[in-house]
Amino acid sequence: MEKNTKSKNIQFMFNKIAKNYDLMNCIMSFGNHKKWEQEIVQSIKFNSKKLNKILDIACGTGSLTQEIIKNSPNNNVIGLDFSNAMLSIAKNKVSNLILGDSHYLPFKKNYFDHITIAYGIRNFENITQSLQEINYVLNNKGTLNIIEIIKPYNNIKSFIFNLGFFILAPFFGMIFSNNFSAYLYLPKSSNTFLTEKGINSLLQKNGFKKIIIKKKAFGSVILLNALKSN
Asked: What gap in Å lies between CA 221 and CA 30, rounded to an integer?
């Protein structure tokens, strides 16, 4: 599959920061990232009467994938990411991993019961195409569960949001990961971050309903649950 320039750049960036990714997630979320992962997993209604098939897209180092496995040990959980370096770290936590792209999911129609994405939507080159792929491989009663950074509405919250992304992210990137340039990606890309209304609208247009959103971190992070429309 041929990737365009943006996808290649993002892939290259994640390959460079893979070793420090978990540490930076902890720092940038003030230690809340694991709590948010646990909360999103707890919101998934697993069917105890059957084997649930779960796909964690943009699984990165496997942090959320591992959390899903802890809470659903008898289910089939697959982590998918397009960064080899990220997957090299994830394999120490998770065994069932695939190198792949959200725009071209290598699975059959209606295959999964649940799909999760943590901090991945904003990096998709074509969000509509990815959501259509997700809709295709998700079964008719399946759920999509997302953790994502968004643009907050409130002016004060927007100020705090901008402070974190334009100043703290590059600074921490330089101090803790020795990669100032990679963490400049966050402020540069923040103008393309979706709003709550924006992501809600996209999901509805691409086959999802009953969208529930919880806001975290001054409204700059959301935990989202959506049901596939029949």
From this structure: 12
User: 214: part of which helix (H) or strand (E)?
Assistant: strand 208-216
The residue ranges of every structural domain in the chain are 5-43+52-228
List the helix and strand counts (H, then E) for the chain.
Answer: 11, 7
Question: What is the C-alpha to C-alpha distance for residues 39 and 120, in angstroms, rounded to an integer?
Answer: 17
Q: What superfamily in CATH does domain 5-43+52-228 come from?
A: Vaccinia Virus protein VP39 (3.40.50.150)
List the 53-57 sheet strands across, edge first: 97-99, 76-81, 53-57, 112-118, 138-149, 221-228, 208-216
Rounded distance between C-alpha atoms, residue 118 and residue 47, angstroms: 22
What are the pLDDT digits (tens) for 92-121? 999 999 999 999 999 999 999 999 999 999
Q: In a 3-state reduction of DSSP, which class is residue 144?
A: strand
CA dihedral 18, 130, 42, 195 (to 10 degrees): 90
Residue type, 113: D
Q: Judge whether 43 and 223 are in contact, CB under 8 Å.
A: yes
pLDDT 10s digits, 21-78: 887 777 777 788 999 999 999 999 888 888 899 999 999 999 999 999 998 867 899 9
